[in-house]
Specification:
The structure holds two protein chains of two kinds. By secondary structure, chain A is of the alpha/beta class. In chain A, 41% of the residues lie in helices and 16% in strands. The N and C termini of chain A lie far apart (55 Å). About 9% of the residues of chain A have low confidence. Chain B has one domain: Beta Barrel (Porin), CATH 2.40.160. Chain B is globular. In chain B, 34% of the residues are buried. Classes of the chains: A alpha/beta, B mainly beta.
Chain lengths: 152, 346
């Protein structure tokens, strides 16, 4: 009996470890949208500029407002999808990229957020904020087009 | 009694966290544990375990344009009564002038090359276990206390620049030992994703009897130091490459000689599996035969060649293990070393 308990404990532990290393899969059907605060970000952005903004390469919007980058955590489906589609990186590589950038003092870390509703609230309340979200969760928030498209 | 202490501690931590959120302050850290087995022609071992530096890294947004970055390292020191020293590695207050242009004041990593700016104390970022000899022999100025103007990601080539004026090597964190200031001018471009090409120039005048903070000795004459540095880095999905070189000219006034030191390294890594990178690194440091500036207060200065080969297993971006073989040759001895390191960020 004790042996069985031991084996099951080891198995459960191993499964927990395994699942902790598995990132959410990339879903090609998911459409992403860019949500923006009314102050700062433009309503039309090119895909190239969007990449620069989310890589921490732009500190100020044209009107002088500070750029505030908001992303879903990379362990969420949307976060993982953003890393893959925008940066051609895994979520892990994106986290490494940002940690390295912040450590070198080159950029301010993005706000990584756990839920889409929190992200929408954050973007709406912070001037200069720009975030990426699942297009079906926009719920009337202000959206910027990317290369003329409302989702990508 | 014990429960109340735990409760008090929990409340204190909660209060600190609340304060941190209000100021938008983040605390990160890095630490590592390394084990090494030295092998020479006459002796093997002993196998040693060593604690690395415990690095606490703080960032804080103070206002719309002002931000702060601080880095404090706790490390072993045999000369300390507690056997540990606390070292303030960076205190940088940044003011955003406009766009991507900033003024920075405080104690910085001197922006002479890629490694010094990007990795420095964060062992979890290091592609190899230890720093290249260019750093471990203190050939380049690692820190500068002073002021700089910096710009980044300008134009299609993502041009960056930095001009820094500081206390230089003959100084402490609070006082310059001589009237001359060090000057660092650096430029770089990032022509494609993951690639950076940089060039920098460093100049300093060091007065006789100044304490050289990095070399832990006194300057025996007046020196003029000039340094040109070149760096190339590429970190792609599969392939990694990093090569940096420095040419240093140290001119002493009493000997009226200019001594030339050339130092550099080249690193290449290849991702053989999702989490495994195999790598090699070659370091070469050639001192002038008459070099006095870098000569240690006691002992002899040797030119060096180091070859490193190893593998890195990355659990995730916050943890990795490296296993490495190193061969170091000087004119006096050949030393081999097998080492392993567990490095984390937290």
């Amino acid at each position: 009996m004790k042996k069985l308990q031991y084996i099951s404990t080891v198995l459960v532990g191993a499964m927990m470890m395994l699942t902790s290393f598995i990132a959410p899969g990339v879903d090609q059907d998911t459409k992403l949208a860019v949500v923006i605060n009314p102050k700062g970000p433009p309503v039309n952005i090119s895909a190239n500029d969007l990449r620069k903004i989310f890589k921490g390469e732009v500190q100020r919007w044209k009107d002088g407002t500070k750029v505030v980058v908001v992303m879903m955590k990379t362990n969420t489906t949307t976060g993982n999808e953003t890393a893959s589609r925008l940066f051609n990186m895994s979520g892990n590589d994106l986290n490494k990229y940002w940690l390295s950038l912040v450590f070198a003092g080159k950029a301010r870390a993005p706000y990584f957020i756990s839920s889409e509703s929190e992200l929408l609230l954050f973007v709406s309340q912070n001037p200069g904020a720009i975030g990426i979200i699942d297009a079906k969760d926009v719920h009337g928030s202000k959206v910027a087009t990317v290369d003329g498209n409302e989702s990508f | 009694m014990r429960a109340s202490k735990v409760l008090s501690l929990a409340l204190l931590l909660f209060a600190v966290q609340i304060a941190a959120i209000a100021q938008d302050t983040k605390i990160l850290g890095f630490v590592d544990v390394t084990t090494a087995l030295p092998i020479t022609s006459t002796k093997t071992g002993p196998l040693s375990f060593s604690l690395g530096e415990q690095d606490l890294f703080i960032t804080s947004d103070i206002s719309d344009r002002v931000s702060f970055l601080g880095e404090t390292v706790f490390k072993f020191s045999n000369s300390s009564p507690t056997k540990f020293d606390i070292s303030v590695e960076r205190i940088v207050i940044k003011y955003n002038i406009y766009g991507n242009h900033n003024i920075l004041i405080g104690k910085h990593h001197t922006p002479v090359n890629y490694w010094n700016e990007t990795y420095h104390h964060g062992r979890v970022f290091f592609p190899t276990i230890a720093r290249p000899t260019l750093f471990s022999d203190n050939i380049i100025p690692l820190h500068t206390t002073g002021i700089s103007v910096q710009g980044a990601n300008l134009g299609n080539l993502k041009f960056g620049y930095e001009l820094m004026v500081g206390n230089g090597l003959g100084s402490t964190d609070i006082l310059d030992d001589n009237p001359a200031k060090s000057i660092t001018a650096a430029v770089h471009i990032k022509p494609i994703d993951g690639m950076r090409i940089g060039l920098s120039y460093y100049h300093d005048n060091i007065s006789k009897n100044s304490m050289l903070h990095q070399l832990d000795k006194m300057a025996m004459e007046n020196y003029e130091q000039q340094m040109a540095n070149l760096s190339f880095s590429y970190f792609g999905k599969k392939f990694e490459a990093l090569a940096e070189g420095s040419l240093v000219l140290n001119s002493g006034d009493s000997t009226n000689m200019t001594m030339q030191t050339i130092a550099g390294y080249a690193y290449a890594g290849y991702k053989v599996a999702k989490k495994v990178v195999v790598y090699v690194r070659y370091d070469n440091v050639q001192y002038d035969n008459a070099e006095m500036f870098y000569k240690p207060a006691t002992g002899t200065l040797y030119s060096k060649q180091v070859i490193v080969g190893g593998a890195r297993y990355e659990f995730n971006y916050l943890a990795n293990v490296k296993l490495e073989f190193q061969n170091m040759q000087t004119s006096a001895a050949t030393t081999n070393m097998i080492s392993a390191q567990f490095a984390i960020g937290f």
